[in-house]
Amino acid sequence: MKQIRRRQIIRAGTTVEQMVRAIADMIVTGVISPGERLDEISLALRFDVSRTPVREALRELGAMGLVDREPNRSAVVANVTGTYLHSMFEAMSELEAICARLSAERMTVDERHALETDHRTSARLVHDNAQEDYAVYNTEFHTRLYRGAHNDHIYEMVTQTRARLAPFRRAQFRLSGRLAKSYDEHDVIVTAIMRGDAVAASEAAYAHVAIVSDASIVFASDKVL
After folding, report:
1. Is the domain 6-77 a CATH 1.10.10.10 member?
2. Could you give the residue ranges of the DSSP H alpha helices within 73-177?
3. CA 21 to CA 51: how far, in whole Å?
4. What is the pTM of this model?
5. Domain residue ranges in the chain
6. Domain boundaries 82-220, corresponding CATH code
7. Are 167 and 66 in contact (CB under 8 A)?
8. Is the pLDDT of residue 32 over 60?
């Protein structure tokens, strides 16, 4: 396994969530390759934690499809095929399109105002090329769309799918100019929702996730697929 100084991948006070994100990012960016073993003891030493949170992190990574683990054997990095990744993004496109359509029809005035305000504020993150902060904002933006649909079952399905795609969606922001393009794509969605145009909102959300899929696969194709 390739060596990385601990302080480069995680800050003090490591949580399971932080470990999941750090290990997932290393898998997606090719620092850890498909088939490599993820030894609990080594990971515990790397993150300066006990083996208990490491086991939980590996369990979550397994649920995301990034790690394979058999009973009484070390976890290994899964080989995520391009076909499987495409199928997940295809499902995500459909789900986000539904959420955007319903948001255009069902969002309250306050929800629409908050969506538009946060979107405009995110322009500063794009200007500063704040990739990490924009990635956090991006998650919040899409969560507003899911909540705005006012359908608990759809919310559950879309958030579960997003969790599996999260490392790949974060990877897209490493591509040059991707933040600005993401902002512009969000702008089309927000404009449609503010106008109450359900068809335009649905089409814009579907197109946005399709572009995210292409960007993510381009970034990851020579690393984990």
Report:
1. yes
2. 82-106, 109-121, 123-127, 131-148, 152-171
3. 17
4. 0.76
5. 6-77, 82-220
6. 1.20.120.530
7. yes
8. yes
